[in-house]
Design goal:
Helix content is 34%, strand content 21%. The protein is of the alpha/beta class. Strands 11-12-13-18-15-16 form a six-stranded antiparallel beta sheet, covered by helices on one side. Helix 9 packs parallel to helix 10. The radius of gyration is 22 Å and the shape is globular.
Length: 458
């Protein structure tokens, strides 16, 4: 009865406004009510250290409030964390306890005007695995070994598939008609599994999940795109039938094989989105995990300790969108970095940069040009061109490793097509305007980056 009333209340608050792929431009999202929906989001995967239920939701509520107050509208949460996770074969009371927690999570998100992207599973083996570092989760699920043997059998044999489908059925009965939920991720980084059979499993489960959640989006995730061999796998998954959002994970990682993962952070983020746009140009692309790690994902990056201005977060938010993503990049280290350094205002700066923008109407074409001093990311639209310029001479290495502050750039000009440019400095939160003379606009003095909005020529 409680969950039934919860569903009725959700409909009264949100109406029938579910998030869907835009009918006019499939690179972007919209609401079923007809309004645009530009995701500005963050991974808030789980509470790392508290275990008391009220304390967990108090901390989650604070994060939701900070994100919402700064223009955010989407959070990603792992339902596979033990706090929410349930075995579909458990007794009814245990399952109900976890469903009530999920309902409370959804209610909290709605209270703060957020949508949720919910990840259903993450384990990689049916063997016992220790937690790698404090606050993380185990990637082993040994309690399933007596039922299914190993992870390959889980993916390839009918009993394992039925286990997952029963879990979907339980979730669908409670939440399939909940518009606060943007969508469902089948599995976090499924290719990191210590077995085989997960690709065909994904093909089946994408379609099965959509049957159960017809009004919400369904998607899959792969591990960090950090080596050349990842490209073909990402191509197959990004274009897979039923995978409604082409998602990519990408980290600044000194141990990565790809050079792009070791360079300037805007390039780390933007190049991942550009790759998926090339693979799957018929659906929205998301950089759904972005961040910085120690070599080979051995822990959060030590760069976070000195990045008090949020240089990495800024690039992680802006670069993906200006490379063609359907929204901001979704940073990973919510407690180790964003919360620790109190960087929530960066979401407000991104929200201000895109305020009043309807990407569906613009039908943006992403173009990136490298100049002597700047990397210029342009979204060329029908009514406006939106440009993000990034100083090439200043990045995480120069600022956070070498200790050289970002210089103030003066007297730079940019070639644009239009009559007048509206300029926004996200580092000072200041707006200005400039006339376009002979096809060029003179940029005001700035550090690191600027956003320029130019009306298209009539």
């Amino acid at each position: 009865m409680r969950l039934l009333w919860f569903a009725v209340l959700s409909q009264l608050v949100w109406g029938q406004a579910f998030v869907q792929v835009s009918k006019s431009d499939p690179h972007y999202l919209e609401l079923s009510s007809g309004d645009a929906f530009l995701p500005i989001g963050q991974n808030i995967g789980w509470e790392r250290f508290a275990t008391d239920e009220n304390e967990v939701f108090a901390r989650t509520g604070t994060r939701f409030r900070n994100l919402s107050r700064n223009g955010g509208n989407l959070a990603r949460v792992w339902l596979s964390h033990p706090f929410y996770d349930f075995d579909p074969g458990a007794d009814a009371a245990e399952i109900q306890l976890k469903l009530n927690r999920i309902a409370r999570l959804v209610s909290l998100a709605r209270q703060h005007g957020l949508r949720l992207k919910l990840c259903i599973e993450h384990f990689r083996t049916l063997k016992a695995l220790p937690v790698v570092f404090p606050g993380s989760v185990s990637f082993g699920k040994p309690e399933l070994a007596p039922l299914f043997g190993d992870i390959t059998s889980f993916y390839t044999n009918e009993p394992g598939r039925q286990w997952y489908l029963r879990k979907l059925n339980i979730l669908a009965r409670s939440f399939a008609d909940e518009p606060t939920i943007l969508g469902w991720e089948l599995w976090n980084e499924i290719n990191a599994s210590q077995g085989t059979g997960w690709e065909e499993w994904t093909r089946v489960m994408l379609l099965e999940t959509k049957k159960r959640f017809p009004r919400q989006l369904v998607m899959q995730t792969l591990g960090s795109f950090d080596r050349e061999s990842s490209a073909e796998l990402y191509r197959r998954f990004s274009t897979m039938p039923g995978n409604e959002l082409a998602q990519v994970h990408r980290y600044l990682d000194p141990g990565a094989r790809l050079e792009a993962c070791r360079g300037p952070f805007d390039v780390v983020a933007a190049s991942a989105v550009a790759s998926l746009r090339a693979f799957a140009n018929d659906r929205p692309v998301f950089l759904s995990e972005v961040g910085a790690v120690e070599a080979n994902h051995s822990g959060p990056s030590k760069l976070y300790e000195t990045d008090r201005e949020g240089i990495l977060l800024h690039d992680g938010l802006f670069a993906p969108f200006f490379a063609g993503s359907a929204g901001s990049g979704h940073f990973w280290h919510w407690q180790d970095y964003i919360e620790r350094q109190n960087l929530w205002s960066h979401f407000a700066r991104f929200a201000e940069a895109v305020r009043g923008l309807d990407p569906r109407v613009e039908r943006f074409e992403p173009i990136t040009v490298v100049h002597e001093r700047l990397r210029v990311y342009t979204l060329r639209g029908q009514r406006h061109s939106l440009i993000w310029v990034r100083d090439r001479g200043s990045d995480w290495k120069s600022e956070l490793v070498e200790g050289r502050p970002a210089p103030i750039l003066k007297g730079l000009t940019l070639q644009v097509s239009g009559r007048k440019a509206a300029i926004y400095d996200p580092w000072t939160n200041r707006h200005s305007t400039a006339r376009v003379r002979d096809g060029r606009v003179t940029l005001p003095p700035f550090r690191r980056s600027l956003v320029i909005r130019v009306e298209a020529q009539p």
